[in-house]
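Z., the sequence and structure:
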Amino acid sequence: MKISSIKKAGYYVMLLAVAGCHHTPPSGAVVLGEAELRQPAHAVEGLKVREGLAATLFASEPMMTNPTNMDIDERGRVWITEAYNYRNQLNPGHPYKQLGDRILILEDLDEDGKADTAKVFYQDTSINAALGICVLGNKVIVSCSPNVYVFTDEDGDDKADKKELLFRGIGGVQHDHAIHAFTFGPDGMLYFNFGNAGDSILDKDGRLIKDPEGNIVANKGKPYRQGMVFRCNVDGSGLEVLAHNFRNNYEVAVDAFGGLWQSDNDDDGNRGVRINYVMEYGNYGYTDEMTGAGWQANRINREDSIPYRHWHLNDPGVVPNLLQTGSGSPTGMVVYEGDLLPQVFHNQMIHGEPGHNVVRSYPVSKSGAGYTARIENIVESAQDKWFRPSDVGIAPDGSLFIADWYDPGVGGHQVGDLDKGRVFRIAPPGMPYHIKVPEISTPAGAVAALKSPNLSTRYLAWTKLHAMGAAAEKALLEMYADANPRYRARALWLLTKLPGRGLTYAKQAMTDKDEDIRITGIRAARQLGIEMGPLVAGLVNDPSPQVRRAALIAIRHSRWPEAPATWARLAKQYDGKDRWYLEALGIAADGNWDACFAAWMQQNGGNWNTAAGRDIVWRARATAALPLLAQLIEDPVADPREHLRYFRAFNFYPAAASTPVLLGLLEKHHPAHQDIINAYVLLLVDKKALKMTPAANIMLGKSLAAVEGGETFIELVNKYERRDQNGALLKIVTGSGKRELKGQAMKSLLNAGGRQLVVQALGKDTALSLAIVAAIGANQDKISRQLLAGIIVNKKYELPLRVEATRRLGTGWDGSEQLLSIVKSGTLPADLDTTAKKVLVNVWRQDIKASALAYYEPGSKETKLPPVSQLVAMNGDAAVGKKVFSTYCSSCHLAGNTGVNFGPALTEIGSKLDKAAIYDAILHPDAGISFGYEGVLVKLKDGSSRLGYIAGETKDEIDFRMAGGAGVKLRKPEIISRKSYDHSLMPTGLANAMSQPELVGLVQYLSGLTSAGHAVK
């Protein structure tokens, strides 16, 4: 073996004896104990497998551990990336392999479906916790932020001889939201993605990459945001961004027609996990397209349901989701184009969902220009909640392989077990693992290999056939005549690559009777670098909306003079219901909206005000659409509150274009709702664009009255600095609205000079006074802390009120310090001593906590609990646990409709974590902090500090969330500094505040919060 610029990797071969072969647990199977479940001999017994299939344990510890990703080569060998060195900087107490993590090759030598040997292909710290592996002949692409490497085995000894960079400069080092696995497409291109920690990507030489339009590929909003999907040539050149604005799109799967499919994870606990069909060049809505604001930020026409709000689905320009699956932690995905598994899985996605301990499929049905899907489980954990499928792959025989991270948790910067890991094979019972190495030296042999369900085999076949050129044409034409449309599509891609013949085959395909072949023909023609307009013109009346969708994507950024008229003819076929088609129209018109919209208006003869026309006006980004939006808002028979989407549409235009139209709305005379219209207009326009004359002030007053009591009212009060609305603000604080709204109203009230009004209201009614104190405590600014401190030391207030003030003051960074100062000064009333102690010894600010412990319990030692292994065996009282949740957890977490949306929601935590992992999360919160909830300490120019997390950020402000769910907008000019907080925002030592029965009851309650696994309706 030759070594070139790499460290020599270790090598070993191990024999593995695995008990328990094919198994589908019968009903009434023996229930295994915790220790038995952990043993490889019982691995299969912990699973429930789809009828007609059986699971075999292919490999486990000690042969391999902690598999993060997997691929299967043409010989049926399983390649694994391990992650023993997982997030060590965040978990410094974990052991560390100095030699680094490994790439393993697992091989079954005797065809019994179990690995007999493991070879180390490469080992080094540069691939610690790699998230992706793609085996392409003698080359192996490994994704490990900040780099993507290509390893080459030049002499066939299963050792890496050469290590080269493909890309570098990718964000998310040691992060689950980083660069993910590559896959080889049917067009000979590479496809891959990264999550929203990826941020940007450089070429192998460290140069900035620009897309074909000259945009820098980076999360800067110009135009790209957050997670992205990419396509490039096999050498990394010609990179395109195919879609963007995902959170953690984990792995993109490509079907034979060139269709793209993937999953995306939500901010933990919000039941917004989604499956996406990736419409090329689409925006998928994780953050605000224009500003980058997070999904929690207030906006006009904000979605009522959090799972949909999470993706900005009410905004024009957001591609709809195929399926929302609730909670979860989605991972690897493939499209199964084999025939060994049951029919329901043929040509469908297969996907790992470790959050719910399941591998499942999403059978898709066409619906207009888009799709619908349902869930069909393949393998799920019958008993073993450590089953964490991190990836799936298809072997050359069509069997399904599952890489199992095997851990009490799902990663997320934390690992509970470093020594275990599993790989399972799923196939019909008794099916041997027999792999025939493909023979690709002839066109016929290579065509046969191109039909394989295995990607690595197809890569070899594609590469060989492409190299043969015209010599392969006859064999490819025979394959193109096959009854299987997916075989036909694979052949078509290669036929369209033939020099001098490619366009002919693409044109022929565009007239095929099969709509999927027509779509493939369009996609293949696009890759030939020709002007697509004239070709697409012949498809404008295609009966298939799917084909018309592909045609629209094909004329995006077209310079053909007739492109706008062609777009308009396609737009006239929009039915007013199909959001997929509408978004395809938007993508196609990008950069040419004015011409496209003008052509559409001309063709419809001014008859635009139909259900379909109104949608196009809403989706448009054409200057000529703005007065039509105003006309829809001013419809005399319509209630503008039922058409808020038209107001929201103005946010997607430059202010120079939208402001004159908006100001014109202020001069209208709606017969019933002009004040409401004015309120939203005043919210949308730049304050500087409006002269606040006496008449304008009167108009603003009427508008405030029309929207009194909601977020729009508060935003208007703040924007126009009104000081005459304090009574209405106090009414919101003492009303029955949401906690966060009350906190916002209190902040506005105090900023407007309403302190005296607040003080006067305190003490008149206990329930109302408690609501006022809670709202004061939602804001940790100086004036709020002063008010809380004044209530604490003033015994004229009832004890419950002072207890609440003590709790609220102690939740903040500066507030906890102020409370401790009150305690040490001796001014704390004696009847609050117990409350103050409980608050301070459990506060998340570690220096204050240490000081409080030294003050209250000098020389004391932490309460000793039994080991987690013993706690898990205890049966707690869930009713007690629910009360404990209400006392200690509900101020920061949601469980169903109870609690506060601050930290990760716990509504389905029992489906994601077993009892041991829940105990670890409570006892050791610093060990694993959910992405997006990392603490940040912000210091402001007024001398105060805020501790919380950043829920969203624009160029002007950050949306900052603090304990209790309070959200504040911090303007960047007011911020001196912000730095990462070294600890979880969940206080360490919280369990010490509970008795052991309370802790055990809490875990019993949380472990019972599970999902039925149904998609969100």
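Residues 252 and 480 are 26 Å apart (CA to CA). Confidence is low (pLDDT under 50) at residues 1-28, 1013-1017.

Let me know what you think.
H.
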